[in-house]
Specification:
Layout: H1 7-21, H2 38-44, E1 48-52, H3 57-60, H4 81-90, E2 95-101, H5 130-141, E3 144-149, H6 162-178, E4 184-186, E5 193-195, E6 202-204, H7 214-224, E7 229-232, E8 238-240, E9 255-256, H8 275-279, E10 286-287, E11 290-295, H9 313-321, E12 329-333, H10 344-361, E13 370-373, E14 397-398, E15 406-425, E16 433-442, E17 445-453, E18 459-479, E19 484-491, E20 513-514, E21 531-534, H11 535-541, E22 546-562, E23 570-578, E24 585-591, E25 602-622, E26 632-635, E27 637-641
Parallel strand pairs: 1-2, 1-12, 2-3, 3-4, 4-7, 7-8, 8-11, 11-12
Antiparallel strand pairs: 5-6, 9-10, 13-15, 14-19, 15-18, 15-19, 16-17, 16-18, 20-22, 21-26, 22-25, 22-27, 23-24, 23-25
Helix pairs in contact: 4-5, 4-10, 6-7, 9-10
């Protein structure tokens, strides 16, 4: 019986069905597809946890260090690991992953593998161990500890040789044996490029897929920390979602097949397409769920100029629904400031978010409901429809083997008002459900509230409006195997406020003029219009870059560049100013370090304010376009910060 008209008809059908199988012993459903490991199941249940980016970049005001930073610059004035952990806990985050070494190569622990480490810092007279203090604070406050160790090292002279791979593994051994249990080991996808490399300023290119011999490195990590999951672009346990904007795809399957060799988990060089991480692969060859990472600030490291750009509690809630709500985990970066503490602005936002989450989950409006199902596997309570109400993600409503679609009706204990529906599958039996629909009983009839694809460990469905209803119906409209739905819950989330506008970036551009009208779209104040052309054409039209006449002198504290996301990402730049349009002064040159992974508005802060009528933005280098490998210049907007 696939569908029913009323609850009385359903009850009669279930009585008949129960009588026919009451004496039969029914086995559990067979698992479907690839399955998660025990560490993956435990990791998935964490829901959300913190990234902590803290190194020399915090003191140089950079996102990526070049590797030539003096160790003495790392000197937090009032470091407090307990304050950092308590701020994270206030948001409901369940773990902390520390950047033990970023691309600059500076190690936050007293390693034997390099002189570029915390023992050369004045902090605690070179006797400190920051990894140890973070690990201890996590243990003390009851959250899990994880480590980030950048494969790329712009300081190490051996980088690019096999000796560095040995050094890198020695660093892993130190971290994975001296600091207690680790829940996650995080490998960054940024590998190879220009750097300091022990004083030899040069560019070192490596084959990111073969250089590190990842299978051997992963095996070492599994031996040292068998309970940890390993995260990278291609797993093996957790995949990068493919963007640092804090949103996963919909659907976002927990299974994944890397592009490349169809019969191997190792993709061919250059064949990993990050966009595929957004959605995963239905019926993929590996259980490799996504992790959605983003920062509470625009940058990954603390910058005082971003104090007015901290995401609000409501912003964080939106990210929560677009990550945890799509079956991924949420990795929220919380960067300490130069004191070595979480800034008060961030603390307030984290606590506000935590309070929202607590309030949202305080009442489950499905509690006390009675449940009717169109089919059940047997009379055994292990498969009963009522199991969806017990808040256990691994007990479930199960249907017969040949029943892949079905309906579940919750008769609520009175009329309830809610706007969030949570659905879960028992992922220990695989990801089985393809399509679903949620209906509510309004005005004496069923109204479809939402439809969608994929459920997995957690699907949070947020209605566009508050719903008041006495019944809720869940329809599984397509499945790959018998249904194993473990959870149906109803909650009330607060309405989201409008995001605050960054006032320092509001500049009147109506009178601005560029040296060529072809660049008008780059200074029109509209990021939806853009300049986009191949690099050779750009060099002919603008050999010195885009020149802008603001018509009147202005006080400038910095510049901003809004990229074109599909192609034309400028990753190295120079900016100049002029009072007369003839004599130019170079004000800043550098790199937009993480623009490939995070193609959002980039900010260039000057060391001190200047007054000028003209400015010039020169793209020094652009990244090859993903689709054709050609070089384009893309500028949605370029402007000043007053």
């Amino acid at each position: 019986m696939k569908k029913f008209i009323g609850s009385s008809g359903l009850a009669l059908a279930m009585l008949i069905m129960g009588a026919s199988c009451s004496n039969a012993q029914v086995s559990a459903p067979a698992p479907y597809g690839v399955l998660p490991s025990t560490p993956q199941v435990e990791w998935q249940a964490m829901d959300m946890y913190a990234f902590v980016h803290f190194t020399v970049n915090t003191f140089t005001n950079k996102e990526w260090g070049y590797g030539d930073e003096d160790e003495k610059i790392f000197n937090p004035t009032n470091f407090n690991a307990d304050q950092i952990v308590s701020s994270i806990k206030a948001a409901g985050l369940t773990g902390l992953i520390l950047t033990c070494k970023h691309h600059d190569g500076f190690c936050l622990w007293p390693t034997r593998t390099t002189f570029h480490n915390i023992t050369k810092s004045p902090w605690k007279n070179g006797q400190g161990d920051m990894v140890k203090e973070f690990s201890a604070a996590c243990k003390k406050q009851g959250i899990k500890f994880g480590v980030y160790l950048s494969p790329w090292d712009r300081n190490n002279a051996a980088y690019g040789t096999q000796d560095y791979v040995r050094i890198y593994r020695e660093q892993l051994k130190e971290l994975l044996t001296n600091y207690g249990p680790v829940f996650e080991i995080w490998h960054d996808g940024a590998n190879g490029g220009d750097g300091y490399y022990g004083g030899a300023r040069k560019e070192v290119k490596i084959d990111r897929y073969s250089y590190y011999n990842w299978p051997e490195t992963w095996e070492l990590e599994k031996q040292l920390q068998p309970g940890a999951v390993i995260m990278s672009d291609i797993g093996p346990d957790v995949r990068w979602v493919g963007t640092e904007t804090g949103f996963s795809g919909d659907p976002c399957w927990a299974t994944y097949t890397p592009i490349g060799d169809k019969d191997s988990s190792n993709p061919a060089p250059g064949q990993v397409l990050y966009e595929l991480g957004l959605n995963g692969t239905r019926n993929g060859k590996q259980w490799m769920p996504a992790e959605t990472n983003f920062s509470i600030r625009p940058g990954w490291f603390y910058h005082a100029t971003e104090d007015n750009k901290v995401k609000t509690p409501e912003d964080l809630l939106n990210h929560y629904f677009a990550s945890v709500g799509h079956g991924t985990t949420m990795l929220l970066n919380v960067p300490p400031d130069q004191r070595g503490q979480v800034n008060e602005i961030d603390v307030a936002s984290l606590k506000g978010f935590g309070d929202i989450i607590k309030e949202m989950y305080r009442v489950n409006y499905a509690a006390g409901a009675t449940v009717e199902a169109s089919d059940v596997r047997s009379e055994d309570k292990a498969y009963a429809a009522a199991n969806v109400l017990d808040n256990d993600p691994y007990t479930y409503w199960g249907t017969k083997d040949d029943v892949h679609t079905g309906e579940l009706v919750l008769n609520l204990a009175g009329t309830k008002t809610f706007n969030v529906i949570r659905l879960r599958e028992n992922i220990k039996l695989g990801q089985r459900i393809d399509d679903w629909a949620v209906d509510v009983w309004e005005n004496n009839q069923w109204t479809t509230l939402k439809t969608g694809t994929a459920i997995g460990y957690c699907r949070l469905i947020r209605s566009d409006r508050m719903v008041t209803a006495s019944k809720v119906r869940i329809r599984i409209t397509k499945g790959a195997a018998s249904i194993c739905l473990s959870d149906v819950a109803l909650f009330k989330a607060p309405e989201v406020k409008t995001a605050t506008v960054n006032k320092d970036l509001i500049v009147d551009k109506t009178q601005w003029k560029s040296h060529d009208t072809k660049f008008s779209a780059a200074i029109d104040g509209d990021p939806t219009s853009a300049v986009q052309m191949d690099m050779s054409t750009f060099r002919k039209i603008a050999p010195k870059g885009v020149i802008v006449d603001m018509q009147f002198p202005a006080r400038i504290v910095g510049f901003n560049y809004v990229p074109v996301k599909d192609k034309g990402l400028v990753d190295k730049y120079k900016v100049y100013t002029s009072e007369d349009g003839k004599t130019w002064q170079l004000r800043k040159e550098g790199e937009f370090s993480n623009i490939k992974a995070n193609p959002i508005e980039q900010r260039i802060d000057l060391d001190k304010p200047v007054n000028a009528r003209y400015f010039r933005f020169e793209p020094v280098h652009v990244l090859p376009a993903a689709l054709d490998g050609k070089q384009y210049v893309g500028i949605a907007e370029v402007g000043i910060i007053k």
